# Entry
Amino acid sequence: MALLPLKDTFELYRKWVGRLPTHRLPVELALGAVLAEAATARIALPRFTQSAVDGYALRATEGQAQRTLIGTAAAGEPAGVVVGTGQAVRILTGGVVPEGADAVARQEIVERTGTGIVLTEAVRTGESIRYEGEELAAGSIIANAGQRVTAGLVAAFAMAGIDTVEVYRRPRVAVLITGDEVLRAGEPLAPGMVYDANGPLLRAWFVENGYGEPVVAYVRDDEAALEEALSAALDSADLIVTSGGVSVGDRDFVPSVADRLGVRKVFWKVAQKPGKPLWFGLREGKVLLGMPGNPAAVLVCLAVHARAVLGRLEGETADQPKWRGGILSVMVEADPERDRLARMRLDNADGVVRLEVLPRQDSHMLSNLASARALVWLPSRAEAFAPGERVSWIPI
# Structure
């Protein structure tokens, strides 16, 4: 069976993975979710014409003539007076600029003279004033549908009077770890047994990326046990990720069990290294990603394929993952049959992203993750990649 080119997987995700339902959330609870509709300002920003500094509101056309103080305007406490000829109002940052004033003289250029003031420098009309609506008019779009809510957007929404937003529901995630040979770290190892890295890796990746605690289950290499666990996961989760059991071994039951449970296979086996046995299918909108058992392959499939699927489920406008550009600092071997996804060291001290391949790239190896900051996409070809070649990468 021919391997599916890596670039084609993204088109298949776009075609097959649908968006989750939407719901309305308070802005404070929407962090990390994706907007399902544009968010518009409910008030103008600024809401009123205000001072940008601590100083004195006055008429700029009077130059440096002496003025008489007729009041004070603090934030939230307008002066309630009209500034006339030869008059000024003491004003604090954020205070409403009183009627009749067209400039604010910052206090550093003002001298007090009893009940009045004198300017040591002239000011221009509009100086140190924030005008009503100069940032946004009421009804202006702050963020569009398909944008992910960040902490900065939460603040922008709150300032613009937006208390709730319509967002796509965050995906519910289930993780199934297969294999009779895996034990939790710290348990005594019998001959032939290994410590499990995939369970901690998958849990940590979803938590680190804002999806909360996935439901994690360990499943024996037994067809009936896998069918029971996968059936329960398909009933409760939007994205099910399995590790192991997707290759062609005697105990690789994921493809056959998924088929028996009505999961429609879209593809199986991708021309990438590591992570070739990746299996992707759907049942009633639920997504199953069957990942290999080697932990480095799992990490690659998370960063590339799970990221793409999650972006589709959550309604992101921009395709995921977001590949960036950089240049290789050393020669890197290519693969003539499969695209390589290589873990690399990243250096951008001079503003140019330079990428250096790390040793120990095999799919069962994770120790280089202490230094790896980038996953670099090296398309399949016969000749090696030369220093200085531009390549695409994503953070890991």
Remarks:
- The chain is about 20% helix and 30% strand.
- Helices lie at 6-16, 151-159, 198-208, 223-236, 254-260, 295-313.
